[in-house]
Design brief:
Blueprint (H helix, E strand, L loop, with lengths): L2 E10 L7 E10 L2 E6 L11 E4 L3 E5 L1 E6 L15 H13 L4 H17 L2 E6 L5 H11 L2 E4 L18 H15 L7 E3 L1 E3 L7 H14 L3 E5 L3 H11 L3 H7 L7 E5 L5 H10 L2 E4 L1 H6 L7 H7 L3 E3 L4 H4 L4 H16 L7 H8 L1 H6 L17 E5 L11 H7 L6 E6 L2 E5 L2 E2 L4 H19 L14
Parallel strand pairs: 1-4, 1-5, 6-7, 7-8, 8-9, 10-11, 11-12, 12-13, 13-14
Antiparallel strand pairs: 1-2, 2-3, 5-15, 15-16, 16-17, 17-18
Length: 456
Amino acid sequence: MKRILIENTYIVTMNEKREVYRNGSILIEGDKIVKIGKVDRDSLGENVEIYDGKGKIILPGFVNTHVHLSQQMGRGIADDVDLLTWLRERVWPYESSFDLEDSYISSLACCGEMIKSGVTTFLESGGQYVEGMVRAVAESGIRGCLSKSVMDEGEGLPKTWQKTKEEELQVQKELYDKYNNTHEGRIKIWFGLRTIFNNSDDLIKETKKLADELNTGIHMHVGEIPGENEYVKKKNGLSTVEHLNSLGALGPNLLAVHTVWLTDREIDLFKLYDVKVSHNPGAAMKVVLGFARIPEMLEKGILVSIGTDGAPSNNRMDMMREIYLTSLIHKGRTLNPKVLPAEKILEMATINGAKCALLDKEIGSLEVGKKADLIVINEKTLHSLPVHDPIGNIVYAMSSENVESTMCNGKWLMKNRVLTFVDENKLMEKLIEQSEKIQKKAGINIPDRFPVINIF
């Protein structure tokens, strides 16, 4: 069995006591951590890979709790537009022009970008070709909870997406039976409810029932815009969250994404039913959703994690940037510099994310017996030195450039800034080729922002 020793390093465990080892070591055998803290190198023999961790920081891999793999090739197609234009005139035409190969290329590129910013686990909120996502996750070595984007009603849906409740439930069950817990257990199948605009009450209730039976999660956009609550109140007399509560849909296996427009009572309902939250600050600001009341949720004891969202809404699948944004916006909103300290932000990106993924028994902290999902951060860059406070520097000063290596399940997915599973240059060429094809097929024309002079 392959063994890897990372030695002489600063280890941030994120265990229950939040212990940190200075000049510590971590020993990996196969896909698990077997020793941490002090490891006698001489007792290991010759069959061990040594990784010099001097001047490095070891962290649990980040958990990105909201991303759209199938939107990676749509980066830049919907900038500076309102949400409904973004959705109905740009993103839906784009996504509905996909085929299986497009899904695979988009997913592989998205996995690569996440890995380069330290992500070892992600939660996909739903695309149409889950098989393409599975192939990309299998090849890249990352850990993913995958969902189909499920919709059985709503205005503006492309014809190819118009499905019945029965069809959507059946295909999700088939995906679960075929792919859940495959590829060394790295792939999990969740159920996806796109939005309250696009999901009937019966579909929501049946999805919750099936997810409970199969002990899996539900991924749903909740409370994104004021118009969402207005729509649900007009239709049902209740806000989104209160209506979901009336349907019996709230529970510990529901991941609610964005959650910007929640009342005090709705936050209390989240706490009561242990609903999990994915906070996406970059997307929320760029698409002008607003500022989620994250400090208030955390104070109530609600489990909040961090996600990037998709490329058309955030443009960057970079968890290090998202961590930095999270650290800033709530200080500005509350005018309180202590409201979300660096250590709390790091919890949101690691152990909280693992709990939101329903995987905290396996990942989210560096402990003996857990999976070897970790990242190596090189602190020696001009933008991050000096390091007086390592935790503070990770959150406030460092960037994805500092992520030197990424490991999932005991395997290096990136080592010394080089992806191990793909030729990155060839992947970028394919990404450009496929994205141009999709844009033409979808009929999306992006106007020039300045006069362009073509030189022939």
